Amino acid sequence: MNQQSNLPAAEAITLPQPYLLFLGDNREPGYAKTAYGLRDWAGDLCIGEYKLDDQTTTTGLPQLTPAEAAAKGAKSMVIGVANSGGFIPPSWIAGLVEALEAGLDLISGMHMRLADLPELREPAERLGRRLIDIRTPPRNIPIGTGRKRTGKRLLAVGTDCALGKKYTALAIARGFKARGIDADFRATGQTGIMIAGGGIPMDAVVADFSAGAAEILSPDAAPDHWDVIEGQGSLFHPAYAGVSLGLLHGSQPDVIVVCHEAGREHVLGHPGYVLPSLQETIDLHLRLGSRTNPAIRCGGISLNTSKLSAEEADALCASESERLGLPVADPVRGGPAFERLLDNCLA
Amino acid sequence: MNQQSNLPAAEAITLPQPYLLFLGDNREPGYAKTAYGLRDWAGDLCIGEYKLDDQTTTTGLPQLTPAEAAAKGAKSMVIGVANSGGFIPPSWIAGLVEALEAGLDLISGMHMRLADLPELREPAERLGRRLIDIRTPPRNIPIGTGRKRTGKRLLAVGTDCALGKKYTALAIARGFKARGIDADFRATGQTGIMIAGGGIPMDAVVADFSAGAAEILSPDAAPDHWDVIEGQGSLFHPAYAGVSLGLLHGSQPDVIVVCHEAGREHVLGHPGYVLPSLQETIDLHLRLGSRTNPAIRCGGISLNTSKLSAEEADALCASESERLGLPVADPVRGGPAFERLLDNCLA
């Protein structure tokens, strides 16, 4: 097990904002998820979009060159599109360098690191701009201490990966704020970090430091402040459960919200692994989470009902709520069920 | 969550053997733990020791210069001592370079990387020798698959860190071999890796790859072959539980042996954290471990009784065995209780 070093402890990543969104020459809306997520959840931080040609997908935000965006106050350009290989194609380089020359830092969540491309590193160094790779965690993350921190915390957990934990945490943080509650969304994945303007990429942290990373992600706060933390992976996932447990222990949540997709029966990509029941999922999180916060409780269920009609979704949320004795809502659909979920999280 | 790359999947580290043990100019036996561990558990792989002066602590092995050791077949020199800062003092450099010049690779488990020292990197490059830092995990570890592997596996787990998991796994592997069973000790920490001549430093693996690392550590094997795997951390530890869960899931143990130190009541260094009971520890491991191996069972308890007299230790093992309905033994003391533990693991 690792020792703590004598260097000052790390803090979570913080990003220069507001953003210009870079869409490259992408034709495929499915690859522009990051740009759409930023538009939907951090629209006030997005000054505009920059496309390399007319056929490129659009977010509907104003089209600006890097120089125009900088004149309007933009501090960075975010790569808002992915491609299947996770790399930066040669056709993007001139546009990325143009942003550096206009005074913007570059932000990327892709697998290929910006700093590994000499065509970008050289102008960035010459111009004094930053190349920020969101997948690179901060240096010198401390070992977890297990010390109870002040303030309130909610963690979105799940029966599986990729079923709405980020969306749920964002919607709950937004719902809390709408009620006048002092709340922060705390991001643990690439897109979430861009939306929040900071956070820690939990999946890229060395395993010994997982809980410590979660601890610095949601530091001591005022007694009535809420951190609403994006979950990662699942305690039931054959590859990622360790990340989920480190995040659960380090987050010390007072409240968990369990996320699930209606109809999903197996772990995504692992057909041999049946998903746990909602009750099993609640029980295991409360048992393990009570190690660092004995007062942990379940606030309710966030059900992704995107494959159902509105009527089917309402009926399912109502019957599941009756069965489990907890609020069950789809935050995308909102409405009274979601308000009841918020009520119970705050109860 | 990370994607798999297209590069060939990693394999566990393998080390050039036999070893010459380097003791530097160390005066403090407590700092020579690695050298003593290698002498005790891999004595047939240790050709001798190399000390910089007469006051240096000794393992009792033949004293050889690097050239003499190389002539006797040594392939590498292992740094067998630590110091409080985890760094390599200037007084060692000439001796380390002497080993490179004699044709030996260098192996270190220290925090400071050998390859970061120009005084070593330059001669190693010039002479074509390897500088092997055990704390650096292999590149390109795959994401866990959860696929059930052939062969049998035993994992030493614990109520806490630093109470005998490595020793327990080594003793069980040795006990299995003494019965003619085909068994391998699988190492997950620095000293264990040197003893085994290979393994994976689980604490240094990026969290998303913990289970995948455990999977490649104990690959498919013959149906009656046993991998006896060194555990790390504890599911109840506020900092390290994520590592322990990734290792549990990826190891897919058929049998766990729970390690505990008699009299320890709190997590080492975390006085606010009471240790779980043995029954709680067994239950949680079986519940979580059953996710990747539904046939998981507990083979017994390995009790570190180093602070007790022989009579007290025997009485405690007997009463705990009666209470839990499982074999309880201290592998350091061996004897019939330990043979019963081996019996039950193989049952």
UniProtKB/TrEMBL annotation, chains A, B:
InterPro entries in the cross-refs: DgcN-like, DgcN-like_C, DgcN-like_N, P-loop_NTPase
Coiled coil feature spans: none
Domain of life: Bacteria
Domain called D-glutamate N-acetyltransferase-like C-terminal: residue spans: 143-336
Limits of the D-glutamate N-acetyltransferase-like N-terminal domain: 58-137
One Pfam family this sequence matches: DUF1611_N
Protein name: DUF1611 domain-containing protein
Organism encoding this protein: Sphingosinicella rhizophila
